[in-house]
Amino acid sequence: MKKLLALSFVASIFCFAANAQTERAATPSQTTERQKGKREKGKMMKELNLSKEQQAKMKTNRQEMKAKKDALKAQDNITVKEMREKQAAIREEEKAKMDAVLNADQKAKMEEFKKNRKEGRKGRKAIKK
To answer: Taking a C-beta distance cutoff of 8 angstroms, is the pair 117, 102 a contact?
Structure first.
């Protein structure tokens, strides 16, 4: 009886260890939040009615910023504080370049869209609590 109990205990440990090694997929709520963010960004870009020239400039700006962010992440000899400061500087630069591409009407639409998005987030946070 003791051998059977010990054998079942060892088998259960192996099963738990095997399950711990598998990757877990994102939960449906996490996936939908990511997808919703991408849809909102796409919706905002459509509502701004960007010209082909503006779209091209935005794309090159995004690619430049992505390259800078990737280069920053590749640095191993940087502290967390320095990384956050540099990421904030990159975001500010990206925002400034985006504002330079947009005209006054488009900037107003973007600000309105951001305001609505913030209000929506506040509502979701209140529901989660």
So the answer is: no
Report the C-alpha gap between 36 and 44 in whole angstroms.
Answer: 12
Whether residue 48 contacts residue 109, with contact meaning beta carbons closer than 8 Å, is answered with yes
Domain-by-domain residue ranges, the chain? 51-129
Low-confidence residues of the chain: pLDDT under 50: none
Gap between the Cα atoms of 73 and 70, Å rounded: 5
- Asked if 101 and 58 touch (Cβ cutoff 8 Å), the reply is yes
CA 36 centroid distance within chain: 11
* Alpha carbon distances (Å) from 123 to 31, 56, 57, 113: 19, 35, 34, 16
Tokens in use for 94? 């990206």
| pTM of the predicted model over 0.90 | no
